[in-house]
Write a structure and sequence with these properties.
Blueprint: H1 11-15, H2 19-38, E1 48-50, E2 59-62, E3 67-70, H3 72-77, H4 79-97, H5 110-119, E4 140-143, E5 148-151, H6 153-160, E6 175-179
Parallel strand pairs: 1-3
Antiparallel strand pairs: 2-3, 4-5, 4-6
Length: 186
Amino acid sequence: MNRAALPHPDPETLASLADSDLARALEERVAAAWGLCREVHPHLPMPRVWLDLRGRSAGQAHFGRGGLRFNPVLYAENRVDFLVEVVPHEMAHWLVHHLEDGPQARPHGREWQTVMRRLFGLEPRTTHRFDTGRASPAPHRYVCGCREHDFTPRRHALARQGRRYRCRHCAQTLVYRGQKVSEKQK
């Protein structure tokens, strides 16, 4: 395996950054990854950067908006790993999409994996391993015949409006059982 192509960020420096400086560190990391990508694709446009992604996803290459979206909660909680893994992951999507046959490429297919390995020197992982508890709270408890299911406020609202959800394992309709009791409430 190649060595990581981007310099490893200093954990102590990242830990001391305020939100605005943290956003700037993310933009600088995206710019460094973009510079590396331009060595193989000189006409690659610079993506815009947003810290507006919610839920369990750490990042998203959003071609319609012309940039990369990142989850501010997951970034704040996983600063070093986020810059080391998530930024190159999304920049690899950005690069592959802008190649000649890129729009037809599979999202985590051969082209993307090649960029991750050869350009960024990273093992191509399709998902992160961050704790998403604070980024994607699911306080509403639903049950079926075989288990408990946690719903986000949005999914709960849809269920309250009449949308039916079934368990993928036992096929029973899920029934609301109230809000989960958090560790703080116990």
